[in-house]
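User: Structure please.
Assistant: Input sequence and predicted structure:
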Amino acid sequence: MSEQMGTSKPPNGHFYLAGRLFPRVKWWRSPKMRTLYFYILVLILTNTANGFDNSMMNGLQTLSYWQEYFDHPRGPTLGLFNCVMSVGALAGLLILPYMLDYWGRRICLVTGSLFMLLGVGLQSGSVNFSMFVGARFILGFGDILVICTAPLLITEIAPAQDRAILVTIAGATYHSGAFIAAWTTYGTLRIKVRSKGIIHPSISLAARN
């Protein structure tokens, strides 16, 4: 049976699980199932936000007003701009396993999202190098809490018939965020900045809200 299952497709309207054949559920006909899939979609989009945040620094470096505002960073300074988000992610990774076991998935998702909102808010209003770098650190800390927790929760709550597909899509949405970041940069390329804020990251904050 197992050998046959591995070399043949299941009949229409069915799927294999643990060597057994099950009928597929038409989730769009059930209000509760539609709600569940909506929540899963929200979890999938967390990786889109991750792709936006991680790709944004590349875009910012093409903006003349950003370069002028931070005095054309080069060398170690530019390296810190780019890597500090990963440093924040490493810090979050040290405590994440214990948070997941003690508080559960939802608390970790909410906590990570709040840290990300704080980081994006501070980054959007950055007035100097230290504030911008600190904001990126906070953003990275919250980002790792969310992007490591969301796939776990998707795996746990997704119906077996679509679990593999949904988890795979969640991993692939990173590039959609990077795509949005690139076009956001293009859209803000000619904006004239009159205040001491950074306009481009504020779009990320608006998207999260």
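Residues 202-209 have pLDDT under 50 and may be disordered.
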